[in-house]
Amino acid sequence: MSWSATRSEARIRKSLQTVPKNIVQVQSFDDRYSQLKARALASSDSRDPKPLVQIPQSNAIIVDGVHVYVQLTEYHSVLQDAQRQTEARHRRALEFLHTHYSACDLIIREYDAQRVDFHGPRLHAVIVTPPGPANERRRVERALEFAQAIARMVEATGEAVLNGEFKTGTRIGIDTGRSIAVNSGRGAEPEPLFLGSPANYAAKLADGTEPGIYLSDRARQVLGMLAAGSLFDQRRQVYNLRHGGVSTPSTLGSSYITDARIKSLSADVGRDLEVLFREANFIFHRHTPPLRTIEYERLSPANSIHMPLVSIFADIDGFTKYVDYCLATNQIPELVSNLHAIRLELAAVLKHDFDGRKVRFIGDCLHGLVAEGTAYETDERETVRRSVICTAAMRSSFNLCRKILPGIANLGIAIGIELGPTPITRLGIRGEFSVRCATSKAVSDSEELQAGCEGDQTALGSRALAAAPLAVQRLFDATGRAKGLDYADASERLSLDSSRVAALAAPAAIGTSAGWTTRAAASESAIQNSGGNRHA
What's the chain's average pLDDT? Predict the structure, then answer.
C-alpha cells in the first residue's frame, strides 16, 4: 500500500472525532495524586499511587515537576568502536545499555521517581513529589539527590560488572517548571509524554561529553543561586553538590542513599547480569519484513532482532513553543486533541502505508524503522527508496494536519534518515520496567541528521545515499538535504527519472540480452555524467 491524501484526511478527521477537544479533561497533578491516594487508602492499598501511569487518552495532567536527563557519556565511544557494525560489537553495546538501564531503574525505585523513557544512552526521569507549587525547592533538592545517586550507581555498577568493562561517566541536565503529561501508548505499553520546555531544556543541558550535573537558571533561582546566563553558559557550569549554595547531601533529606546501599544495589545488578551474560547473552535473529509485524512484548535479550534497516526520526519543529503558548493561554484541550491526531497519523503512515514499525515517540518526535527484503537479506536499495517515499508521505500528512487542525499552521516537521545494521530488543528490569530498544550508529546518525534540519527539510545519511537508487539521490542536494520533499514531489520526480532511464535503455531491447545489459549500463552512466549523481 502507498500513501493517499483521501485516506490520510479521513484518518485525521477520525482521530479528531476519537479525542475531540471538547471531551479532553485537564487536571492538575496535585488533584490526580490526591484522588488516587484517597482510593488507595479506601482499598487498604499501601502502595504509593502512580498518577502519571496509564493516563486516559483524553486526559492531560498539568505537572509542576523537575526533569532530569542522564546521558551515559561513554556510550558513543562504544558505537565508534563498532565501525564494522558487527553483531558482536552490537551485542556488547546492548550489554552496556542493559547493565546501566537495570542499575538506573533501581535508583528510580529508591526515589519513587517517574521514569519517562530510556532512549539509547539517555534516561529521562521526572521528580513530581512532594506535590504543590510551594514544594518546588524540595523537588529540586530531591532531584539533585536523585542525580547524584544515579551518577554514583552508574559508577559503582560499571566497576562491579565484567571487571570494569562498562565503566562510564554521566552528564546530567536538570530543569524545573510546568509541563503537560499525556499518554502516547496503548494497552499494556503506556508511553508517558511530558510536553513543554522543562523536559526539552534538561535534555539540552545533558547534551555533551563533559560529565557532571548541569542546572538550568530556573533550577538555580529556586535554590537561591545566581543565574548562569545563556544556555551555552549553563551547559558549561558543573554543579558542585557540596558547594552549590544549598545544603550538603547529608542534610538534604532522609531519602539520600548511602554509599553502602549503592554498593549493595550495584552488586545485585552485577550478579544478575553475570547470570544473564553466561546463560543467555544476546541472541540475534532476522525478522522477515515487513517490520510492522514485530511484537515488542516477545523480545528479550535471548530473543533479539539484528538486521540492516533504515532508522527514521521525524520531529515536529516549533512544538515546544506551541505547548508553552497553549499552557499560557489555557488551550490545552486543543493541544491534546491536535497531538493525538498528529501522532496517530504519522504512525499510521509508517505502519499501514509503508509497513514500518514505530519504536516510540520521544516527546514530539517519532522514531521509526523500515526494511524491505526477504527472510535472508535486506534489499538496501529498495529499503532506502521506500523510506524516502515514506518520509515524503509523512510530510504530506503533516501538511494536511496543518490545514485541518487549528493553531498549528506555523509548525514544521524535520526528518532524518539513515541506513545500517541495527539490533532491536527489550532491555532493563524484566516485566513492566523493561523498555523497547533499537540502537545503532544508524539510529544515532538519523537522530543527529533530524536535529540539524529546519522544519521543511529531510536529510539522508551518507550510508543511505550510497545505497540509494540514482533517482533517489537526485532528490537531495550536496549536503544530503531536500527542502519541502512531500509525496507528490517525490513520486513525480522518481517516476520521471525512472521513465528517463527506461527510455534511454529501450533500444537495447532489440539486441541480445548481453547488448541490453551493456546499453543499460551506458545509459545510467550517461545520467551520472550529466551531474545528477552528485552523492554517489
Answer: 85
Q: Region 448-475: what's the mean pLDDT?
A: 97
pLDDT at 79: 65
Please check whether residue 95 is in contact with residue 422, taking contact to mean a CB–CB distance below 8 angstroms: no
Residues across the chain: 536
Q: Where are the alpha helices (DSSP H) in 306-440?
A: 319-329, 332-348, 380-404
- Taking a C-beta distance cutoff of 8 angstroms, is the pair 71, 209 a contact? no
3-class SS of residue 256: coil
CA 36 to chain centre: 30
Q: 3-class SS at 357? A: strand
In 53-188, beta strands by DSSP E: 59-72, 114-119, 122-127, 170-183
Burial class (CB in 10 A: 0-12, 13-18, 19+), 229: exposed
Q: pTM of the predicted model, to two decimals?
A: 0.87
CA angle 113, 119, 122 (to 5 degrees): 65
Angle between helices 259-279 and 87-111 (to 10 degrees): 150
| Cα–Cα nearest to 465, from 536, 361, 399, 371 | 536
The span from the CA of 191 to the CA of 185, in Å, is 4
Amino acid at 296: Y
Q: Give 31's pLDDT tier (boundaries 50, 70, 90).
A: confident
Q: What is the mean pLDDT of residues 364-368?
A: 95
Span 450-457, average pLDDT: 97
